Amino acid sequence: MQQLVNPIKITLGDKLGVFFWRHIAMPAIAAIGGKKYPSGKVTEFAYGDLPDEQLDFIAPSPSSEKRLAIVHIHGGAWIAGSKGNFYSKPLMKFSEVGYPVFSLNYPLAPKQQHPYMLRSLLKALVWIKKKYPQHDTIHLIGDSAGGNLAMMLGIFMSNPSLLRQLDSIDINALPKIKTVVDLFGVNDRTSWVEDGFPSAKLFTKVYIQNTTTPKIPMVPMDFENIENLPPTFIVGAGNDKLLRSSKIWAEHISKKFKDIEFKIYEGADEVIDYKSQDVTTLVKNVDLVADCAGGEAQSKLFEVLKSGGKLLSIAGMPSPELAQKYNIEARFVSSNLSAKSLENGLKLVLEGKIKPIIAKIFPLAEAAQAQDFVSAGGVNGKVVLEVS
């Protein structure tokens, strides 16, 4: 069933971009928004031979009404992300009301690009039906790149003639799809690039543009003719750079299929200008704060959190004293860089392939002034201490 796809050739700049998203940005996002599963609640299984071919099973609460299984596919622009703690809160909510939940990992681009991810996920679905035959009908859910993959699977698995273009798998070995939920998915090739989604050109290059099977559809809008489609819920966010992609797809399939729902969820309820407004007088009893500024601004954030809330900072270590005073879980989130990765980064800088943005250079003797310069805020770039 599986066909290995040869690794693609990408530039050093592409590799750095992938490294940033996979090892820095996405882990930081997961640390800020995630929460550990309760002990003993999750069982991990391997559904294939590759390291990323794994899934989590979250059993439903035994006292809840029995429901169809949910299969969740994580996001991460096809190059990053993972099942696990970032999704624990919504997936646990499903479990608590009776849904058995399967959360899937899959091999990532650029090492494995289109269509290997879809084939790998088909393997996971075959595994689920074989190991848990009672869950032979599922709700398929994905967000971002996972939304793309969930929607693609929904189309392929509902149309046997299209499925044969993707894989030789026996359709009877797969569970039936009751519904598809496409959360902020990549549904066309160009709109998210045109609308300025961060690093969209990189993600497009390492997944969509580099493939040995370009005739196999990569995004939902690639399909010329779809005969069948399960009930589909498409979700967009008001300020999301993927919103137009969701709209394009929803409008397209609504012309032919009736059981389609499209919902836009707006963004922040209120925007606060930290330069002219005091956040401590405007916001109270917040569950979670992500701090990107540090310093005095970070200290004020303890006052807006409710007791038992969480403060996560990428700018500096939060005060243990303030954390204790306000009964807050406060952590500094950092990436685990190795000596080798730092050496490689320095080499790229010396070769001129990376050009750091320098805000200002101070002599070492003016280190105190440099600290004051940074603490004042509004600095764009790095502040450098020069050692003569």
Q: How would you sum up the major sheet?
A: 8 strands, mixed
Distance between the termini: 62 Å
The average pLDDT score comes to 88
Structural class: alpha/beta
Indicate the proportion of strand residues.
Answer: 15-25%
Shape: globular
Care to describe what's here?
With 388 residues, the chain is of the alpha/beta class. It has helices spanning 12-33, 88-96, 116-131, 145-158, 160-166, 191-194, 200-209, 243-254, 279-282, 295-301, 320-326, 339-350, 367-375; strands at 42-46, 54-58, 69-73, 101-104, 137-143, 176-183, 232-237, 260-265, 286-291, 305-313, 329-332, 358-363, 382-386. It has an eight-stranded mixed sheet with strand order 1-2-4-3-5-6-7-8, sandwiched between helices. The longest helix is centred in the N-terminal third of the chain and has 22 residues, at 12-33. The protein starts with 11 loop residues before the first helix and ends with a strand.
